[in-house]
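Reader question, answered in our methods column.
A reader sent in the components of a multi-part assembly and asked whether the whole thing could be modeled at once rather than chain by chain. We filled in our standard form and ran it. Here is what they sent:
COMPLEX SIZE: four components
ENTRIES:
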Amino acid sequence: MTQSIKTSVDAVVFGYDPEEGVSVLLITRKYEPFRKSWALPGGLVKNDESLEQAVNRELKEEAGIDVNYLEQLYTFGKPDRDPRNRVISVAYYGLVRPKDYQLSADTDAEDVAWFSIKKLPKLAFDHKHIVDVAIKRLQGKLAYEPVGFELLEKKFPFSDLEKLYQSLLSHELDRRNFKKKIMNYGFLEELEESIQRGAGRPARLYQFNKKKYFELKENGYNFDLFI
Amino acid sequence: MTQSIKTSVDAVVFGYDPEEGVSVLLITRKYEPFRKSWALPGGLVKNDESLEQAVNRELKEEAGIDVNYLEQLYTFGKPDRDPRNRVISVAYYGLVRPKDYQLSADTDAEDVAWFSIKKLPKLAFDHKHIVDVAIKRLQGKLAYEPVGFELLEKKFPFSDLEKLYQSLLSHELDRRNFKKKIMNYGFLEELEESIQRGAGRPARLYQFNKKKYFELKENGYNFDLFI
DNA sequence: GCAAAAGTGTTATTGGTACACCCATGG
DNA sequence: CCATGGGTGTACCAATAACACTTTTGC
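And here is the structure of the entire assembly that came back:
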């Protein structure tokens, strides 16, 4: 018998908000199986598009969102992961900044929403497992590459970065030591501006210097933030 | 038009020999396209088998080999990577010990051989690229997990481990410091036996204590051999 | 006895960790 | 004036890096 395996892509898109912590973008399914269940955005790959194109297309169609970082996560291929057909899914994970985090309303009829990774609903297929793998990967990635900057506003107070690391790595970290370490790398610039949010002293804004970061990286620098 | 994408697996199997360095297992293709060209072992996934089963089956059929470590590498899905059909390939990389490294002769008619990663022949499809990705991954993996032991004999002289790291990370390392670091982790046991190979003083044999390793790992130990 | 590989300790420097008080603002 | 979050420096300890000579064997 000839091969009858379908290929799909699924995307685990992470957003971050200092109040809410890390969230994942979910949609409700329009069709059986798992109709009306929450699921990862994704769908079948078209014959002439690349996997990345497929992910970006689905994200646009289903959630009206553009990610600014996208990386392949893992390919899930157990024969029974879809109850109807054999479908292997190439999963990606993406990161979006807070401003894209506000979903544009004009997407399809289906529901789209952010869910904190601490309070996920029941998910279709093996999507819970895929999300778990993505979270682990993001944690690992964060520990040796400053991808966190893709989740923050272009200009942000230092405490946002700190909170991001704390919420994702889920353990305390020393404010002074953390700042010392990050600033020592030299890819983070302190700006003249400040902002104030709620109570307390206004906070200086910082921005990530990508150019400097890539220079350091070229020179074989290791960013091991094994915090 | 309905989807007509095929799913295959390809395997980058690494072997190691202290004399030869790190090698990759290649086969010659029986059919067009790229007939008689060197290529990675692999082939189409069957409808009812998992991706891992497919890799292991192909390795058995095409090269008569069993790997003792297998991990998914990346999924390659560019529309034009196969000149005839659209085929996405889920690539795996595997490690074998020297004794499996000797290929059993009774495989199919096609050629099977090891090639040093320093002297690879021209490869079919995008297999050169896949091998490059696998090498990078192995280097990275080696730096934070002792997978190297899967490449060495059960009992081995310390210098084999040292040579493995040197050849793969391609820079000098201090014998004393390296040994100090590895032995400090506590998952490597010194045996009473020695062997002698060629000239020079006989070398003590060592063996990897997997149980101890997993204990340490459970306790959140980090093996960062950023050498 | 010489060539070849194995084995072994000490010191200096660096980076990591622990730790507590003052500052600027809004209400 | 007080509550809230922002900002900062030092001292100790642990890990890393640099470094060269001796031992055991085969030939």
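What stands out: Chain A has six helices and ten strands. The first strand of chain A starts at residue 6 and ends at 17.
Send us your own complexes using the same form.
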